[in-house]
Design a protein that fits this description.
Elements lengths: L2 H21 L4 E2 L5 E2 L7 H12 L7 H14 L15 H4 L1 H4 L8 H15 L3 H14 L10 E2 L20 H11 L3 H7 L7 E2 L9 E2 L10 H5 L18 E2 L8 E2 H8 L4 H7 L3 H15 L10 E2 L54
Antiparallel strand pairs: 1-2, 3-8, 4-5, 6-7
Length: about 350
């Protein structure tokens, strides 16, 4: 073998070794034994432990976990790709909570901001980092949820977001899609973000029944909400018969439907996107994670942020599949999308359930 050929082979071998080394992510072992891809993330592990203990009762998927997720959305959506609508995912809703909790669309947010504020102050994080880390950690407590991305290093917020940037349950589908488009989201991403309602409950739409869940498996991050919104009997109340605008009648006792969820499930622009989520846990997880990754850095210069997603706990897997609640079946589905086949879903045995309010609401 000639020397030149040998030199070429050695060079190729070294290049291949370098490529393999580059493909293997570097890991850092923190002083407390946790492992991360970036040393700067080590400081977050004790903060995550504090958040779990002081906000989420030791890692529960409860009212506080959903409220933390809701807070991150209400914080970030105050943004426009055209400018002039706030700083996006900057934590302004926590830092300027007296201003932003007074907005009508932020009704009920005052409880979670009051709970988070002293914990936030003790951590030394910026408001934006705290709000969006707490949302990722709280969501991770819910079985079936994706492990959300967390980017670290947001600067402090400069000012409150303006009012009228958060879509409301009484808004039309056209208005909701337009507000999301103004923030940079397409209809598929809108439906994906509504996956959060699987662990949600209503407190302020009807204050006489606080903690009313949006689906029958409120402690699990699954596609049940996409199924149950379609059950027949879910209809808009007559305007003269309700004092709770935004609420939709549900055939399940103890359950609430948002007017906007029902409208989106029936609108030709979004009905098939809604139906495709049903009983497709992987689709829901993947699309929700991607949409949240986009939401949680709105208005931020991502070149200046550090990916610390590995400090977020790994959620327990979904044990599924979803089912029709007892006494319901496909004959009860109000199907708006006929272009695709409706998934085959079994029914739980027994009498029709009555759902209990979510504890802590």
């Amino acid at each position: 073998m000639s020397f030149s050929r040998l030199s070429t082979l050695v060079a190729l071998a070294l290049a291949a070794t370098q490529l393999v080394s580059a493909a293997v992510p570097k890991r850092v072992t923190c002083a407390d034994g946790n492992v991360t891809a970036n040393k700067a993330c080590c400081a977050l592990f004790p903060i995550v432990a504090t958040i779990q203990e002081q906000l989420f009762d030791g890692a529960e998927c409860g009212e506080e976990a959903h409220s933390a997720l809701r807070l991150s959305f209400h914080d970030a959506i105050g943004f426009s790709i055209h400018g002039g609508k706030g700083g996006g995912a900057d934590g302004s809703i926590l830092a300027f909570n007296e201003t932003e909790t007074a907005f009508h669309a932020n009704g009920g947010i005052d409880d979670i901001t009051a709970g988070q504020f002293p914990v936030f102050q003790a951590t030394g994080l910026t408001a934006g980092d705290f709000v969006h880390l707490a949302a990722a950690v709280g969501t991770a407590n819910c079985p079936g949820a994706p492990r959300l991305q967390f980017m670290f290093g947001r600067p402090p917020p400069k000012a409150p977001a303006p009012d009228l940037t958060v879509p409301e349950p009484t808004d039309s589908v056209t208005a909701i899609l337009a507000r999301f488009a103004d923030a940079g989201f397409n209809p598929q991403e809108v439906v994906a973000l509504l996956s959060s309602h699987t662990i949600a409950a209503a407190d302020v739409i009807d204050t006489s029944i606080p903690g009313t869940p949006f689906d029958s498996t409120v402690g699990t991050f699954d596609t049940q909400v996409f199924l149950e919104v379609l059950l027949k009997g879910t209809s808009f109340p007559d305007a003269g018969n309700t004092s709770h605008p935004g609420e939709v009648l549900s055939p399940l006792r103890g359950e609430m439907r948002l007017q906007s969820d029902f409208a989106i499930s029936q609108d030709p622009r979004t009905a098939c996107l809604w139906q495709e989520m049903i009983n497709d846990q992987t689709r829901m997880q993947t699309q929700f994670k991607a949409a949240m990754a986009k939401l949680q850095v709105l208005g931020q210069d991502t070149r200046k942020l550090i990916d610390c997603s590995d400090v977020v706990p790994v959620p327990a897997p979904f044990k599924g599949p979803i089912t029709f609640p007892a006494s319901f079946s496909q004959k009860d589905v109000q199907q708006a999308c006929r272009q695709i086949r409706f998934p085959s879903i079994s029914t739980v045995a027994g009498p029709a359930p009555t759902l209990a309010p979510v504890p802590g609401s």
